[in-house]
Amino acid sequence: MDDCLLLDAGSGGRASQRLVERCFLRHFDNPLLRRLDDAALLEDMAAPLAVSTDSYTVTPLFFPGGSIGTLAVHGTVNDVSMLGARPRYLSCAFILEEGLPLDILERVARDMAAAAREAGVRIVTGDTKVVPRGACDKLFVNTTGLGVVYANPSPSGRNARVGDAVLVSGTLGDHGLTVLASRENLSFLSDVASDSAPLNKMMEDVIMVAGEVHVLRDPTRGGLATTLNEIAQQSDVSILLDETAIPVSESVKNGCSFLGLDPLYLANEGKCVCILPEERARAALAAMRASPYGARAARIGSVTRGRGGSVVLRTRIGGQRLLGMLEGAQLPRIC
Amino acid sequence: MDDCLLLDAGSGGRASQRLVERCFLRHFDNPLLRRLDDAALLEDMAAPLAVSTDSYTVTPLFFPGGSIGTLAVHGTVNDVSMLGARPRYLSCAFILEEGLPLDILERVARDMAAAAREAGVRIVTGDTKVVPRGACDKLFVNTTGLGVVYANPSPSGRNARVGDAVLVSGTLGDHGLTVLASRENLSFLSDVASDSAPLNKMMEDVIMVAGEVHVLRDPTRGGLATTLNEIAQQSDVSILLDETAIPVSESVKNGCSFLGLDPLYLANEGKCVCILPEERARAALAAMRASPYGARAARIGSVTRGRGGSVVLRTRIGGQRLLGMLEGAQLPRIC
Asked: Is the pLDDT of residue A190 over 80?
């Protein structure tokens, strides 16, 4: 009986205390969290700040290359980083289904703790709700991240300018295809793995060497194509991509072609799009490639003049294809 | 078909954009949110900061006196306030079930917007996930709140001192009993209503007039008894309460007595416990009573010497009863 989560662990009473001690304080331990007040007190944050929130509902909870725990840290750390901010603190709120095996919760907490250590962030406040069996599917987690903005001006989806270079920090589609393969037990895809990774250090290096970065975005849900469409709309420009330059691993290419999926619309969890002045592109690319998470960084296109913000792919055989925003849901519960 | 949430609204693509425009930007609109970058940029926050997170899973979604939307703002605003901080910004992350009627989501968003306006906070960043039918029960929402700490030192559960007075800002048990009554359609409880309310302004007034406040806590899950036990443990003191002084409305008293519930263990969503030096108690009480949410504020006991942190109730007939922490789950999904 001690091995599964009971409803009373969400009551706010003694069982909640035991769960917090066993699963969260043990793995996330730090002096700010240990105060266990209603809120955490952060003494050392100076404006401007970046704040970002995401809930994670991915299924399955564990997959090659990561888990809901790594995503919950990397996803939020990356969103904060995309504003040119140094992520420092995370909050963490679980919604758990009655009956969840406690060792699953512990594995998730361990993954979160390890990911937070690598990214250099601390989990300082949290919340746990337990809902009756059937009211949620196993485990959802929300993290909200806080960082100190160091880039000036801060990158924004609104800042792409005609003539800018468009870079991507590595291969596309790995996360989306991996989750699909794990969920459906597609054994012929056994060599794909999620790219779940923290990008904050890479972003600092890129901004430092490039000096001026107009846009940073991580192409998660909806993939590269959707992210670039958002940027094109927000900045009122067009984006021209060179298909042959877009990095996609052989496994993802083969898997997508077999399943009829387009890697440009699949989610990534450890990649960024960087848009910056042409003359800074070479230095930024070198900084990306020096990171363990940027070995296959590439320049994939340019920002061009264009009404209404379209994204155009110059294909391998010289044609042009309009890349729209994702319509419909390619895969639910991908992150 | 336009009236229910489809799975693709969580895809990150065009349907997500439409949902954000229709439900969130419309109701929460402000210049920081409208940037729609991966994170919000806050220019005007100075340390020390308070940060707090809560997920809300209450069922039913609407009940007399409030809704999941009012709770999602009040609960987090109050947690930030309990650190002696002025709440300024909220993040907001929804997990929605496919098929949810969109007018329900809009009602929730409207309630959140109205509650945020009253509390003087802005919703500056968000996230929406849509999960397939059956993977969650209708709608969950997480908010994370950020505030600037003005109290020095900041109140903490660790700061209760022997001799301090214990105050509560009003009647107890209203929220818990109301949710139970709504869920179970208990028509004889038709005159109870949730106390869901923002306490930030009351807390500012109390701290300003009292000067020195040792502990502030909102007795939510687990009720007053559990909250006081936590404080007694954290501060390593005992707390002696006078039963006759504890404010409970007639309706809650009758409902609890009928159902065999103890109002001291029922959740509150618009009340605070305030522990402070005896000589400041009168001024703090007056400040509470001057607030629209503190009319029935009362002094209910004192902090006493005591090993292991026990909470003792001096009963109406002169006996003493040990008030333990909540054991078991009195009511799941209460907030």
From this structure: yes
Give the closest of A47, A217, A332 to B43, CB-based: A47
Q: How far is CA B246 from CA B168, B240, B249, in A?
A: 8, 12, 10
Task: Decide the pairing of beta strands B215-217 and A40-42.
Answer: unpaired
Which of B139, B61, B137, B133 is CA-nearest to residue B93? Answer: B139
Interface test with A, best of B35, B53, B122, B221 (most A CBs within 10 A): B53
Distance CA A34, CA B234 (A): 11
**What span, in angstroms and rounded, lies between the C-alpha atoms of A326 and A260?**
15
User: Letter for the amino acid at A255?
Assistant: G
Q: Which residue type sits at A270? A: G
Measured CA to CA, the distance from residue A270 to residue A209 in angstroms comes to 20
- What pLDDT score was predicted for residue B2? 63
A52 contacts in B (CB within 8 Å)?
38-40, 91, 125
Q: Does B235 touch chain A (CB under 8 A)?
A: no
Instruction: Examine the predicted complex and report whether its ipTM is higher than 0.90.
Output: yes
Beta carbons of B147 and A39 less than 8 Å apart? yes
A53 touching chain B per CB within 8 A = yes
**Distance between CA B58 and CA A24 in Å, rounded?**
23
Q: Which token pair is A214?
A: 């107009």
CA B296 remoteness from chain centre? 18
Q: What DSSP state is assigned to residue B20? A: I
Residue limits of CATH 3.30.1330.10 in chain B: 7-149
Q: Which residues of B touch A16 (CB under 8 A)?
A: 221-222
Chain B residues within an 8 Å CB radius of A89:
51
pLDDT value of position A329: 65
A333 with B92: Cβ contact below 8 A: no
Testing the interface with A: which of B33, B35, B41 to mutate, by most A Cβ within 10 A?
A: B41
Count interface pairs A-B at CB distance under 8 A: 291
pLDDT digits (tens, 9 = 90+) for A94-128: 999 999 999 999 999 999 999 999 999 999 999 99
CATH number given to B7-149? 3.30.1330.10
Tokens of A140: 């959802």
pLDDT at res. B1: 47
Residues 6+ apart with CB under 8 A from A270: A74, A78, A170, A175, A194, A195, A196, A197, A198, A199, A293
Q: Residue B50: which of A40, A50, A220 has the nearest Cβ?
A: A40
Three-class DSSP category at A95: strand
Using the beta-carbon criterion (under 8 Å), do B37 and A156 form an inter-chain contact? yes
- Chain A, 92 to 121: residues with Cβ < 8 Å from chain B are 92-95
Q: Is the bond preceding residue A247 a cis peptide, omega within 30 degrees? A: no
**Chain A residues with CB inside 8 Å of B43's CB?**
47-48
- Which CATH topology does A165-322 take? Phosphoribosyl-aminoimidazole Synthetase; Chain A, domain 2 (3.90.650)
Indicate where chain A has its CATH 3.90.650.10 domain(s). Answer: 165-322
Q: Which of B30, B36, B129 to mutate to test the interface with A (most CBs of A within 10 A)?
A: B129
Note the pLDDT tens digit of each residue in B134-192: 999 999 999 999 999 999 999 999 999 999 999 999 999 999 999 999 998 888 888 99
Q: Which amino acid is at A63?
A: F
